[in-house]
Write a structure and sequence with these properties.
heterodimer; A: mainly beta; seven-stranded mixed sheet; four-stranded antiparallel sheet; 50% strand; B: mainly beta; five-stranded mixed sheet; 1 helix
Chain lengths: 115, 114
């Protein structure tokens, strides 16, 4: 167990809807990264938050947005869902300072299905 | 942008055989991490390599970082059924534009037949 939790575990939405996924980081970690993992693919970096500020972003459109709270938990919001958004969404927490690739501890993920 | 290729995509071995996966980058890397993901699970950190030419061992696993810091490999000696899973490399680039972006390779899926 990594101490990183995610909710919900599974979610079914329809095209055009909005979704919020949540992540509680491991105690003592101030950095959270979000990834999208399609079936049979590697995790794709969405963005990272460090001390409540976005600290890097992958090639995802603006309808993917996030927040990090003072307790370092985090949310991933996706607006206007598309069928291709169906995937496993992983969050990973770490202790890293800005710009350092520290060991990332992954949560179990949220499996999103868009119909 | 940074391009990472991981090969092979799949590997089926008999228990006891060796296994190697390679991660190749088009650009020089700052460091590289390796993760293992069991079927239905989430990625679990294995190791981080930072220095040019670095070699690290964990029991039957040997990790190498190339001299030019553009490629890396993971070698498993005498595979066991517990080694089944997908192995991902996660390189971090040196370029400022890529430094805060974290890429995973496409992974090598290992199946071990008992």
């Amino acid at each position: 167990e990594t101490g990183v939790t995610q909710s919900p575990t599974h979610l079914i939405k329809t095209r055009g809807q909005q979704v919020t996924l949540r992540c509680s980081s491991q105690s003592g970690h101030n950095t959270v990264s979000w990834y999208q993992q399609a079936l049979g693919q590697g995790p794709q970096f969405i963005f990272q938050y460090y001390r409540e500020e976005e600290n890097g972003r992958g090639n995802f459109p603006p309808r993917f947005s996030g927040l990090q709270f003072p307790n370092y938990s985090s949310e991933l919001n996706v607006n206007a869902l598309e069928l291709d958004d169906s995937a496993l969404y992983l969050c990973a927490s770490s202790t890293g300072a800005s710009g350092t690739q520290e060991t990332q501890y992954f949560g179990p993920g949220t499996r999103l299905l868009v119909l | 942008g940074q391009q990472v290729m991981q090969i092979p995509q799949y590997q089926h071995v008999q228990e006891g055989e060796d296994f190697t996966t390679y991660c190749n980058s088009s650009t020089t890397l700052s460091n590289i991490q390796w993760y293992k993901q069991r079927p239905g699970g989430h990625p679990v950190f294995l190791i981080q390599l930072v220095k040019s030419g670095e070699v690290k061992k964990q029991k039957r696993l040997t990790f190498q970082f190339g001299e030019a810091k553009k490629n890396s490999s993971l070698h498993i000696t005498a595979t066991q059924t517990t080694d089944v899973g997908t192995y991902f490399c996660a390189p971090q680039g040196c370029q400022i534009v890529n430094f805060n972006k974290f890429y995973f390779g496409s992974g090598t899926k290992l199946n071990v037949k008992p």
